[in-house]
Amino acid sequence: MSCADRQETPSADDGRHCFGKREDIIQAKRVVKLVNGRDILVLYHEGEFYALDVHCYHSGGNLALGDIEEFGGRLCIVCPWHKYKITLLEGEGMYQPVDPSVKPLRPGPWTSKGVKQRVHSVTESNGYIYVTLNPSTEPIESDCYQTEKYRATRAKMQLQKKK
């Protein structure tokens, strides 16, 4: 069984978690796996791999369904629920401030809210893609959607929708 066939990703001795064959991920464009209790999205875009928590920091939207766009010269994933913009490299929330004293109202330049989404590092070895979880112990807003309680609530809501 290859690492891509397992539900929980196996880890290498160095803390890396195998997500699958490089070519399979390129073809799929996005892969979500459970790694040490975290739902991680690995995506391939314009020749690069990125990894981040799959649930948006704002309200838990599924970022695997988000569009990739550039804002202020930074590549972002856009949450499909509320259109929050999150940088792929740093996990920063992006917004355009508006000065209410200036009429007519016009949005300012794209600005960072700071790191809101946990991002993880991606490496390639022997044709396989590996993720190393972000080692920071500082809380990040997207962490609240990485709990068993949240997964159970989400599963219950999905069952109710099917009825």
UniProtKB/TrEMBL annotation:
<dbReference type="InterPro" id="IPR054716">
    <property type="entry name" value="Sol_Rieske_ferrdox_dom"/>
</dbReference>
<keyword id="KW-0411">Iron-sulfur</keyword>
<keyword id="KW-0677">Repeat</keyword>
<keyword id="KW-0479">Metal-binding</keyword>
<keyword id="KW-0007">Acetylation</keyword>
<feature type="domain" description="Rieske">
    <location>
        <begin position="16"/>
        <end position="119"/>
    </location>
</feature>
<keyword id="KW-0597">Phosphoprotein</keyword>
<dbReference type="InterPro" id="IPR036922">
    <property type="entry name" value="Rieske_2Fe-2S_sf"/>
</dbReference>
<dbReference type="InterPro" id="IPR017941">
    <property type="entry name" value="Rieske_2Fe-2S"/>
</dbReference>
<dbReference type="GO" id="GO:0051537">
    <property type="term" value="F:2 iron, 2 sulfur cluster binding"/>
</dbReference>
<dbReference type="GO" id="GO:0046872">
    <property type="term" value="F:metal ion binding"/>
</dbReference>
<dbReference type="Pfam" id="PF22543">
    <property type="entry name" value="Rieske_4"/>
</dbReference>
<keyword id="KW-0408">Iron</keyword>
<keyword id="KW-0001">2Fe-2S</keyword>
<protein>
    <recommendedName>
        <fullName>Rieske domain-containing protein</fullName>
    </recommendedName>
</protein>
